[in-house]
Amino acid sequence: MIPFISVKTPAFASLIDSLLEIEQSGIHSNYGPKNTLFETRLRDLYFNGTGNCLTVCNATIGLMIAMKHVARQRQSSSTPRYALMPSFTFAAAAHAALWAGYTPLFCDIDPETWAACPVSECRLIERYGDSIDLIVPYATFGNGIDLNHYEKLHKETGAGIVIDAAASLGTLDENGHGFGTGFAHPVVFSMHATKTFGIGEGGVIYCANPDTIAALRTMGNFGFGSPRSATNHGINSKMTEFAAAIALACLTTMEEVANQRAALAEIYCCYLPPGLETQQPWGRRRSYQFMPVLLPEGCSRDEVRAALDALNIGTGAYFSPHLMQQPYFAQICTADDLSTTNNVADRILSLPLWTDMTPEMPRRVCEALQPLVTLPGAATTQVAA
């Protein structure tokens, strides 16, 4: 059996000493010593010692406070307040924008990178202008994106920038530094158990501007800018010391895990059947949560998935339906023409890729796919296990 996702977090036995330290300190939350140590080590190991990191209880809360803080400040008016983002992303981004007080404005995606399409972004910016208070690009499936483009859009529009980098903790830029290094706007990472850097539940925000992280830290502690006195927007976004202890343990194997998953992705790329399309790579290394591919036009994804399931090979279909195809968002959000998004969402197939997979497993998945995608409509062909 090859499950779609197999979660691996540090063994409980390896955490005993760290958990005893927490018990003895009596500090369980409120940016305690484990959180502080993790933030510092992650910055030094992954972000070249620049900027600052802030732990959060989950990445959705991280997106919420980041959006609330960096959005364009303006007097209240009857004009809608939009957050420009791709529709091809996880629901957390749109929910976070709505909770922060902004209506998602969905752009189309690029057919090669599957990230926000610059042409579609610019079309929406021309149409909605100063009503766009936020731009929230998604680093699709752990891949990196061009951050210089978003610095340029910030300077041109005045809109705040928040990077949704949910699965990108472990992704390296062209200089070998962690994705987001040196970027002056918040980059929000998830540390959910299903991610390459998975602790169970949690997140981290990176920003090269220390003042931004300081403000977000205040917001995440009920807005307390002085003891027990709110001076800003506030919510409780703090991560527990127990979660931070797991995160510290994950740091010790971060490079090994990321490199192992990248090697498995290379095997996939060598053996994938002709006709399947892969995402255009970015940077030196990508953090893989799974292996996303596009099926050929006209190939039935449902039949392919059913045939693989019969062979005990698990699959997913991230993100199908995309956000504008989901009833709640369709009722209240606005979108550009989403032709490419619709096409990619219809054809996307997520293949298993997890830390303890053997090299034989991706080859087996590819062999099972071979007769299923050779011709459109041939997906019901059976393959020997």
Write up this protein.
- The protein has a five-stranded parallel beta sheet.
- It has helices at 16-25, 33-46, 59-70, 91-100, 118-128, 147-157, 210-219, 241-251, 254-271, 301-310, 327-332, 339-347, 360-373, and strands spanning 52-56, 82-86, 103-107, 132-135, 160-161, 163-164, 187-190, 203-207, 224-226, 229-230, 277-278, 291-294, 334-335, 348-351.
- Helix 4 links the parallel strand 2 and strand 3.
- It is 38% helix and 13% strand.
- It starts with 15 loop residues before the first helix and ends in a 12-residue tail after the last helix.
Number of strands: 14
Report the portion of residues in β strands.
5-15%
Helix content: 25-40%
* Unreliable parts: 375-385
The largest sheet is: 5 strands, parallel
Instruction: Give the spatial strand order of the biggest sheet.
Output: 5-4-2-3-13
The overall pLDDT average reads: 95
Q: Report how far apart the termini are.
A: 10 Å
Determine the structural class based on helices, strands and strand pairing: alpha/beta
Q: Which value, in Å, is the CA radius of gyration?
A: 21 Å
In DSSP terms (H or I, runs of 4 or more residues), the helix count works out at 13
| Bulk shape | globular
Helix-strand topology string? HHEHEHEHEHEEEEHEEHHEEHHEHEH
Write the layout of secondary structure elements.
Blueprint: H1 16-25, H2 33-46, E1 52-56, H3 59-70, E2 82-86, H4 91-100, E3 103-107, H5 118-128, E4 132-135, H6 147-157, E5 160-161, E6 163-164, E7 187-190, E8 203-207, H7 210-219, E9 224-226, E10 229-230, H8 241-251, H9 254-271, E11 277-278, E12 291-294, H10 301-310, H11 327-332, E13 334-335, H12 339-347, E14 348-351, H13 360-373
Parallel strand pairs: 2-3, 2-4, 3-13, 4-5, 6-7
Antiparallel strand pairs: 1-8, 7-8, 9-10, 11-12, 12-14
